[in-house]
Structure formats: structure tokens, C-alpha cells
Design brief:
With 293 residues, the protein is mainly α. The chain contains 13 helices and no strands.
Length: 293
């Protein structure tokens, strides 16, 4: 069907657009809540929304406890570790550009590991595309990193959560592709977020005050991250993992920093240099090469 084919082609672009707004949501919400407390509140709402949706639509649950455990593990990696790492790194003072650059290395890690763990063949064209993508991301966010003025001694403290986030999204993509590529998105989301809520709440209770300032900005950021990111973008990510190779899915993350930069320019008036525009072009061409490989 032509309509179905069009939706299939638009899904990756829609995913990139929605995923890129995560940094915007963090910018609005983090001043009013500590990072893990912010995520705990988000997870509670996501579980409530998706749980009610699953019950109302009588969505099927996994056929075995083993499958449910696999889905839960992907949630810990893609939700708790990735989101927790990104939010903590920004909260500690790491410029968003540096955080995006660290997580932007995910396609290279995925490509390097996909052949060993999943038996996927990574072509020379894909490697070239991935290299172009990394170079483009570096150009786009490099100026932002310099403007941040982070000294070397403090950088490691800020980078550790971002590196944990990089490991989480990479391992989560590979793990899901290998162990549970197909599951119902409604019940699967509940199973992904439940263990993430448990571990994040436990850590937050020991390390944070768990106080929230319920301002308009925080409520907007929370609802955006719940409905658009946790429900919309994560569902699209699961669909992409189900239908494509791990390398193809990972290559999309190269478009996140340039897209985030464009949104920040439109919403906050952040200017884009010629170097940044060149980097965006490189990133787009790199993703095209990697996905066509």
C-alpha cells in the first residue's frame, strides 16, 4: 500500500525529530528538579499512561517470563542507564553539545559490535557513512563544547554519566535486536519502564532530596517528555529495531545533535555557524550512506 510505504519511509525522520527534543525538555525541566527525581516522575506517568492503554486495548503480554525479563533488561539499558546518564551529565554541568557528541559515538560502537554479536555484515560503504556522520556531529557540537569552558579536572566527573549513557543505548539496541526484537509496544513499554523506575527511584532516594518545583516550565517539560519522548519516540525506536539492522537504527542517532541545534536555534535563538551547517550536511550524508549500505 502506498500509504503504508510512505509511513515506513517517514518513521526514521519522525523518530529523529522527536528524539532530538529530549535536550529541549531537559533544558526546561532540570532547573526545577534533580535529574533522577525528574526521571522517576516521568517513569511513573509513562507506566500509568501505557498501562491504562494496554488494559483498555487488551494488549497481549509476553508469552513467557523469560521474554518479559529480556524486555525489562532492554528498559534498564535504554531508559534507566541512557536517560539517567544524559540527565546527570547535563545536571553536573557538562555542556549539552559535549554530551551529544559522546552519545553520538553510538553508531561507531554499534557497528563495531554488531558483526561480532549479531552476525551482521557491515559494508565498507556503511563504515564510510558512519565516519562521515561522526565527523559531522563533531563539527556541529564542537563549538558548543568550547563555549562551555569545562576544565580538564572537572571534565571527567561530568563525562562519566555521559559515557554510561553511551554504553546503555548501544548495549540496549544490540540486546533488544538479539533477544526480543518483537513485542507489543503497549505492554512492552510497561515492562521496560517498571525496572527503570525501581532502580532509578532507589538511587534517587539515596542521592537526591527528591524535591520538585511544580512550575509551568516543569509541567510542560514533564508532559512533553512523557507523551512525546517516552511514549512516541520510544515506540518508534522499538519499531525501527524490529524492522531494521542494528547499524541502520544506530546511524539515525547521528542526526540528533544537528536536529537539536536547529530546534534550539528556532526556540532560543542560538546561532549556527558555517562550520555547524557543514557538519549537518556531513551528518545527513553519513546517515544516508550507512542506511543504504
Amino acid at each position: 500500500m502506498p500509504t503504508a510505504s510512505l509511513l515506513t519511509r517517514l518513521t526514521p525522520l519522525l523518530f529523529v525529530l522527536l528524539w532530538s527534543t529530549g535536550f529541549i525538555g531537559a533544558k526546561f525541566g532540570l532547573p526545577h528538579a534533580e535529574p533522577l527525581t525528574f526521571l522517576v516522575t516521568r517513569y511513573v506517568l509513562v507506566i500509568g499512561v501505557m498501562g491504562l492503554l494496554a488494559l483498555a486495548m487488551r494488549a497481549p503480554w509476553p508469552a513467557s517470563p523469560r521474554e518479559a525479563i529480556h524486555i525489562g533488561i532492554t528498559g534498564l539499558l535504554v531508559q534507566a542507564l541512557y536517560l539517567g546518564g544524559v540527565f546527570m551529565s547535563i545536571h553536573r554541568g557538562l555542556p549539552a553539545g559535549v554530551s551529544a557528541l559522546v552519545v553520538g559515538m553510538q553508531p561507531l560502537l554499534t557497528a563495531a559490535l554488531a558483526g561480532m554479536l549479531l552476525g551482521e555484515r557491515v559494508s565498507a560503504r556503511q563504515w564510510t557513512g558512519l565516519a562521515f556522520g561522526f565527523a559531522g556531529v563533531a563539527l556541529v557540537v564542537g563549538s558548543k563544547a568550547q563555549v562551555g569552558g569545562v576544565d580538564g579536572e572537572a571534565l571527567l566527573h561530568m563525562l562519566i554519566p555521559a559515557l554510561a549513557a553511551l554504553f546503555g543505548i548501544t548495549a540496549g539496541t544490540l540486546y533488544q535486536k538479539r533477544h526480543c526484537p518483537r513485542f507489543d509496544l503497549r505492554t512492552g513499554s510497561v515492562l521496560q519502564f517498571l525496572p527503570s523506575l525501581a532502580i532509578t527511584a532507589l538511587i534517587a532516594s539515596q542521592t537526591e532530596t527528591m524535591a520538585v518545583q511544580w512550575t509551568d516550565d516543569f509541567i510542560f517539560a514533564l508532559l512533553w517528555l512523557v507523551l512525546v519522548l517516552s511514549v512516541g519516540a520510544i515506540s518508534l525506536l522499538n519499531l525501527l529495531i524490529r524492522s531494521g539492522s542494528a547499524v541502520n537504527v544506530a546511524s539515525l542517532f547521528y542526526l540528533t545533535p544537528p536536529t537539536t541545534a536547529l530546534i534550539a536555534w528556532a526556540m532560543f535563538g542560538e546561532t549556527l555557524s558555517v562550520l555547524a551547517i557543514t557538519g549537518m550536511a556531513l551528518a545527513v550524508s553519513g546517515v544516508w550512506l550507512a542506511r543504504k549500505g
